[in-house]
Amino acid sequence: MLDPDDIATGVRRRAATRDLLNRWGWTYFVSLATNDPMLSPTKMRELIRDWDARVNRKLNGPRWQKQPETRLWSVYALEKPTTNPHWHALVMIEHPDPAKRAWQLEQFPAIAEAAWIDLVKSGTVDVQLVYDQRGAIKYIAKQLTNSLQYEQLIFPGELK
Q1: What 3-state DSSP class applies to 94?
Q2: Which of 76, 47, 82 is nearest to 157 (CA)?
Q3: CA separation for the pair 118, 105 (Å, rounded)
Q4: For residue 114, what is the enclosing H or E element?
């Protein structure tokens, strides 16, 4: 039987996460599926770290780690970690140079897909512009009442 205190804690945690995520203006909503139910949460974290690095490198060049102001600002939520593990991400592109930002906005969908497919041959990618920020945040946070999924949440700036 579910403990009512655990349920209440999960609901509060999800609400607080939604409030936090609403502080930023997200550009893209991304889904990254492996289509491999055997991958562990640890392996999924390795994959998202590699994907984030590859996308940042393509968008910002080989010195991307030394330029934090140009990096993607992203949050990653692992969904269905024990049956169909996949990531949902909110990504903000805010390069200080307007011309570079425009290029990044144009190139991001193709770069994001190529980087994931290079890492996960059986993977699928869906990249969408965020038109309804509250809806995108609600979707990414929908399963954060679950402790396992909340523990796998990766906040902006955590991947370096």
Answers
A1: coil
A2: 76
A3: 21
A4: helix 98-119
For the CA atoms of 38, 157, 56, 66, the dihedral, rounded to the nearest 10 degrees, stands at -130
List per-residue pLDDT tens for the chain, 160 residues long.
Answer: 445 556 677 788 888 888 889 999 999 999 999 999 999 999 999 999 999 999 999 999 888 888 888 889 999 999 988 888 999 999 999 988 999 999 999 999 999 999 999 999 999 999 999 999 999 999 998 877 777 677 888 888 887 6
pTM: 0.90
Length, in residues, of the chain = 160
Asked if CATH classification 3.30.70 holds for the domain at 4-151, the reply, yes or no, is yes
Amino acid sitting at position 19: D
Using an 8 Å Cβ cutoff, are 52 and 156 in contact? no
In single-letter form, the type of residue at position 22 comes to N
